[in-house]
């Protein structure tokens, strides 16, 4: 059995399948961990979701910001005013609606392997969380809100994109603010201020921003960044691992920008990739 990790697929079905063939992925015995952002940008989001649903026993995934947006749109069909043809095709597809309502919306924001000491989320682990129990319970709280009927905080979050909570305030946040912080930390974070509060807008690589006040989240001191191997996606401008510690592995290598889709083998400690055609 091999445990593989793949970065943001973003609707690039052909490349995804080719990469699985390249590593001889064994659907019976291997496991594929997926950093989220399964859809949008690429040409075949529908095929990606059909396929992942059909192999759901072989995968462990976390939701990304684009996946959350799709879940929101499907749960609120009247509320939206979408012009993007690729998104409209998803929203009007009955099988996709079924997959989102019955499977995707129940997926977690964190995956954790206690034995192997692995953590995975879409954006990473926020520096203000230095305790594994807090991470797991916060991720679970947010998951329960997204998947329950009483999901008003989730709807408000997507509807109020500009209203960003960036400070965990030592676990004192409640209600909407608490949900907002958890989702920001696990699905959108890239940079933080030196005290660990999140900065939600800067995307470029560290060498390109020239800032004294901002650091990538994984450069802020946190005991968990030493204790665990952390897989994440979301930040395609990082590329190739030159900024991250060895045990912090960014897998979004920008397939949706004409770069690569990347898979990592835990047992072989090896990367495999395929060039994406856009
Ligand atoms: Mn993302």
Structure description:
The chain has helices at residues 13-22, 45-54, 65-75, 85-91, 94-102, 132-147, 152-159, 175-188, 224-227, and strands at residues 3-6, 31-34, 59-61, 111-113, 118-120, 191-193, 198-199, 214-216, 229-232, 248-250, 260-265, 270-275. It has 278 residues and is α/β, with parallel strands linked by helices. The chain has a single domain (3-275), classed as Purple Acid Phosphatase, chain A, domain 2 (4-Layer Sandwich). It has a 5-stranded mixed beta sheet, covered by helices on one side. The chain has a 4-stranded mixed beta sheet with strand order 4-5-9-10. Strands 7-6-8 form a 3-stranded antiparallel beta sheet, with no helix packed on it. Helix 6 packs across helix 8 (175-188) and helix 7 (152-159) crosses helix 8. The longest helix has 16 residues, at 132-147. The protein is globular, with a radius of gyration of 18 Å. The site of manganese (II) ion has 6 residues, from helix 3.
Furnish the topology, listing elements before pairings:
Blueprint lengths: L2 E4 L6 H10 L8 E4 L10 H10 L4 E3 L3 H11 L9 H7 L2 H9 L8 E3 L4 E3 L11 H16 L4 H8 L15 H14 L2 E3 L4 E2 L14 E3 L7 H4 L1 E4 L15 E3 L9 E6 L4 E6 L3
Parallel strand pairs: 1-2, 2-3, 5-9, 9-10
Antiparallel strand pairs: 1-11, 4-5, 6-7, 6-8, 11-12
Helix pairs in contact: 6-8, 7-8
The structure holds manganese (II) ion.
The site of manganese (II) ion (MN) has 6 residues, from α3.
């Amino acid at each position: 059995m091999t445990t593989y990790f793949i970065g943001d697929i973003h609707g690039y079905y052909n490349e995804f399948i080719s990469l699985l063939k390249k590593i001889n992925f064994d659907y019976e015995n291997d496991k594929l961990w997926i950093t989220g952002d399964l859809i949008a940008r690429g040409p075949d989001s529908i095929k990606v979701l059909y396929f992942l649903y059909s192999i759901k026993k072989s995968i462990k995934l976390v939701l990304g910001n684009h996946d959350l947006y799709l879940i929101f749109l499907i749960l609120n069909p009247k509320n939206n005013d979408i012009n993007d043809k690729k998104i409209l095709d998803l929203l009007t597809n009955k099988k996709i609606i079924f997959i989102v309502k019955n499977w995707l919306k129940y997926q977690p924001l964190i995956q954790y392997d206690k034995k192997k000491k692995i953590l995975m989320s879409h954006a990473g682990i926020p520096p203000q969380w230095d305790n594994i129990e807090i991470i797991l319970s916060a991720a679970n709280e947010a998951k329960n809100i997204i998947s329950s009927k009483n999901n008003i905080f989730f709807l408000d979050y997507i509807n109020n994109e500009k209203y960003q909570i960036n400070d965990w305030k030592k676990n004192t946040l409640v209600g909407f603010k608490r949900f907002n912080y958890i989702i920001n930390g696990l699905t959108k974070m890239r940079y933080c201020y030196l005290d660990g509060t999140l900065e939600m807008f800067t995307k470029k690589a560290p060498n390109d921003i020239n800032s004294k006040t901002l650091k990538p989240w994984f450069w802020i001191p946190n005991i968990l960044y030493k204790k665990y191997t952390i897989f994440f996606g979301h930040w395609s401008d990082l590329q190739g691992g030159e900024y991250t510690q060895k045990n912090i592995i960014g897998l979004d290598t920008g397939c949706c920008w004409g770069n690569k889709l990347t898979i990592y083998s835990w047992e072989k400690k090896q990367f495999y990739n395929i060039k994406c055609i856009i």
